[in-house]
Amino acid sequence: MAPAVVCRAAQRPPNIIVILADDLGCGDISLYHGWVKTPRIDRMAQEGMTFTDFHSNSSVCSPTRAAFLTGRYQQRVGIVDVIVGKNEPDTGIPPATQTIARVFQKNGYATALFGKWHCGYENKFNPVHLGFNEFVGFLHGGADYHLHGTWRNGLETQDVKGYSTDVITEKSVDFIKRHKDKPFFLYVAHQAIHNPYQTRDDTPENREPGWNQNAVNDVNRPRYQRILEDLDQSVGKVLDTVSQLGLAQDTLVFFWSDNGDVRMSPAERPYRGGKFSHYEGGHRVPAVAWWPGKIGAGTKSDALLAGFDLLPTLTEIAGISKDNPTHLDGISAKEHFLHGKPMAARDLFFGYEPKLGTAMRHGDWKMILKGDDLQLYNLKDDLKETTNVATANPEITALMRQAIERFKQTVTPGS
C-alpha cells in the first residue's frame, strides 16, 4: 500500500494557492519585525521560504493584480492606476487576455477566486470570463466589510452575508475540500487590510456618528491591528485545511501583498514611502512560499522578484508552462523556489504614469524619474533612500535614464 500512495502523490500535479493581502506592508507584521504579531504567517515562513526583496508591480491595487494575472507589465493591458468603479466602465483586463487562471484551467485544474477583483468594474471583465470557474467577491476596489449588496456569485449580484475576511476564508476552505481529489488553482484575494477599518464589531448599527472609517489615526489603529490579526488567522485556516486533508506535500501556497502599507504603524517603518509611492515602502512587500517537502523550511531569499513572476514560476512548477502566454515579462523562479538556485540579473520597472513617473531597479541601484525630477539611490548602502547620488554617478544615471525612456516607449497598451 505504501508504494502505491507514494506513486500517486508523485504523479499528482501540485495544487496552487495564491493568497493576496491588500495594503499590507513589511513593517506591519512580526515576520519582518513589525508591530502586529502574526503567528500563522510566522509559522508559514518557518516551514517555507521568506522573501526580502519581493515586489508588487505597482504601489496600488489594480495594476499589481493585472500584472500578476497576465505575467506582463500592467501597461500592456492599459491598467496603470486604480480602477475607480463605475467612473471607468471600459477599463479592465480584456476578456480575451490569457491569464494565469486560463493556463491552469486549460490543463484540467479547477480554478476559483474569492474576494477582491479590481481588474474591471463591469461584468464584461468578470473573473469567470478570464479563466476562473468560480468567483464570489466584489469587482470594485474598496468595500464595506459587512454590507455586500454589490458582491457577485459568478455573474449574478448576490448579497453574501458575513464579515468579508470570514466569507473569503470559508469559501476558500470549502473549495479546497470540494476539490481535494483533483488539482486546483485557488486565488484568495483578501479585502484586509484595506480601509474602511471595520472589525467584526463595527456592524452598521454599531458605528458611531462622525467616525471616519478610512482615516489613518489613533482611533483606527487598534481596528487595523484586529483586521490584520484576522487575516493572519485566515492564512492559518487555509494551511490547516490543506494539512488536515493530507494535501500539504501536493500544494504550494504563496502569500504576498498588492502594495506597501498606508503608514498606520506607530513604530519606525523599514522603508521610505508607502502606498502610492515609488519608494521601497510602496512596492517592496511581504512574501512567503510554503510547500512542505519541496521548499526548504526556514529558508530566506534576497532575490529580486515581482508579482508578474508568479505566472511563469507557478505554471512551470505545475509542468504546464507550454501553455503560457507568449512574450511574458515575468520570469520563472522555479529553480530558486525549489533548489535555491540564484536568479539571473535583470532590470525591473515600476511605472505609474503620469502621477509618480517611473521607477527602475538595476541591481542595487534604484532610480525614480518623473519629468526633470531624477533620483538615484544605492539600496545596498541606503535602503531607506535618503540620499540622491545621481550627480555623483553620472554613468549609471545616464544608463538607467535611457533604459526608462525605452521602457516607456515599448511597454504600451496592446504591445
Please provide a written account of the structure:
It is built from 10 helices and 16 strands. By secondary structure, the protein is α/β, with parallel strands linked by helices. It has 2 domains: 13-345, 3-Layer(aba) Sandwich (Alkaline Phosphatase, subunit A), CATH 3.40.720; 349-410, Arylsulfatase, C-terminal domain (2-Layer Sandwich). The strands form 3 sheets. A 10-stranded mixed beta sheet has the order 7-6-5-4-8-1-9-10-2-11, with helices on both faces. It has a 4-stranded antiparallel beta sheet with strand order 13-14-15-16, covered by helices on one side. Strands 3-12 form a two-stranded parallel sheet. Helix 2 (39-46) crosses helix 6 and helix 5 runs parallel beside helix 6. The longest helix is centred in the middle third of the chain and has 24 residues, at 221-244. The radius of gyration is 21 Å and the shape is globular.
CATH topology of the largest domain: Alkaline Phosphatase, subunit A
| N- to C-terminal distance | 53 Å
**Count the strands?**
16
How many distinct domains? 2
So, the CATH homologous superfamily of the largest domain?
A: Alkaline Phosphatase, subunit A
Q: Which whole number gives the mean pLDDT?
A: 95
Name the descriptors.
ten-stranded mixed β-sheet; 2 domains; four-stranded antiparallel β-sheet; 10 helices; Arylsulfatase, C-terminal domain; 415 residues; 18% strand
Question: Topology of this protein?
Answer:
Elements: H1 2-11, E1 15-21, H2 39-46, E2 49-51, E3 54-55, H3 61-70, H4 100-106, E4 110-116, E5 134-138, E6 152-153, E7 156-157, H5 164-178, E8 184-189, H6 221-244, E9 251-257, H7 280-283, E10 287-290, E11 299-301, E12 305-306, H8 310-317, H9 334-339, E13 348-352, E14 357-362, E15 365-370, E16 373-378, H10 394-410
Parallel strand pairs: 1-8, 1-9, 2-11, 3-12, 4-5, 4-8
Antiparallel strand pairs: 2-10, 5-6, 6-7, 9-10, 13-14, 14-15, 15-16
Helix pairs in contact: 2-6, 5-6
